[in-house]
Amino acid sequence: MKLDEAIDLIDEEELVEILKSLIRVPGHVNCISQEKEISNLTAEILKRENIDTELQEVEPGRLNVIGKINGKNKGKSLVLNGHLDTVPPNDSMKSYEPKINGGKVYGLGTCDMKGGVAAMLYSLIIIKRKDIELDGDLYFTGVIGEESGGTGTRFLINSGFRPDYFIIGEPTELKIVNSHKGCFLLDVIIEGKAAHASMPEKGANAIAAMGNFIYKINKEYIPELNKRIQKGLGSPTINFGIIQGGKKVNVVADKCVLQIDRRWIASEKNEQLTKEIEKFLIDVCKKNKDLKFYTVQKLPPDGYFGPFYFPENNEFVSICKDAVSMTGRKPLMSSMPGWTDGATILHAGIPTLILGPGSAEQAHTADEFITIREVIDAVKIYLSLIFNICINNN
Prior knowledge:
Blueprint: H1 3-7, H2 12-24, H3 36-47, E1 52-59, E2 62-69, E3 78-83, E4 99-101, E5 104-106, H4 110-129, E6 138-143, H5 151-158, E7 165-168, E8 176-180, E9 182-191, H6 206-226, E10 237-245, E11 255-264, H7 270-285, E12 292-297, E13 308-309, H8 315-325, E14 333-336, H9 342-347, E15 352-354, E16 369-371, H10 372-389
Parallel strand pairs: 3-6, 3-7, 7-15, 8-14
Antiparallel strand pairs: 1-2, 2-6, 4-5, 5-16, 8-13, 9-11, 9-12, 10-11
């Protein structure tokens, strides 16, 4: 079967039904069983098409889904990777029932990234139904915990999974993303000395010290970060996400904790990030002998959370460009500010690109949606990649 014949098999109604079924089943950190139900549903979609399917237990009750169509061991293997979890629903969401309006599907996770998962699943379904012979193995990996640190993909890679190529189906508007920033999470803790609020001079106020630290970061550190620029990505950033301190309003605060999200670029080094921040803590705390600080890195030590960059002149990029062109779209290279599982995979030495339907601007929003046209085009692109990577055309 030729590629254009496979593309002609795309049934819009069936594809949308798969997407709707995925949207109806929640899977996030606030669910009692987290991703268990969505993992089981995803596995069932594959199994009813007689696709070899494994449920890989990452943590008790938390399951990666690995679907595989075997090749003849004569070609390259390709993985279509998508995360099954979403962020928790916002306060305005009362139902997981998807809605369709104006060629768009609305619902939690539609673009981040159940639209991409539906397109990937449907690509495997077409290959399997028509018994298209592959020279290299084709995989779908539905992973857990991407929204909370990349748990599923990290487990997959750390367990020794080593195919030839990976596509991450995060929402990129079907642009080919080959770079993004790294993620670095740090807790900053300042400890002071408690005293009665009527005699603040007897204590050392940790909240006030943290305020001075934040002031210094804004005035001195951020301008320094703004001078560091990576093409396509811009400058590193720092965000103060959560701050907690004090016990009672009439007591000088003896402790304050600040959670920081620091996004970094390829020209920076992981080991410099804490040192640069601690320099300002040293300056703040040296003014009072009762002030002390310490920092705690929050990301798992068995993972890579640095920047992602894949060279544009690689053959894999050319294959992706041809696949996008086939849909009538102009193949565009892009970058994204947020961190993805792509960094974990590329760090393991596997050629990886990020390419999926939907816009990142819609992700995590109250009216999240994806266009049906983009999901269909994503299937076309993934089928093209399968034909060009898993089938020898010599």
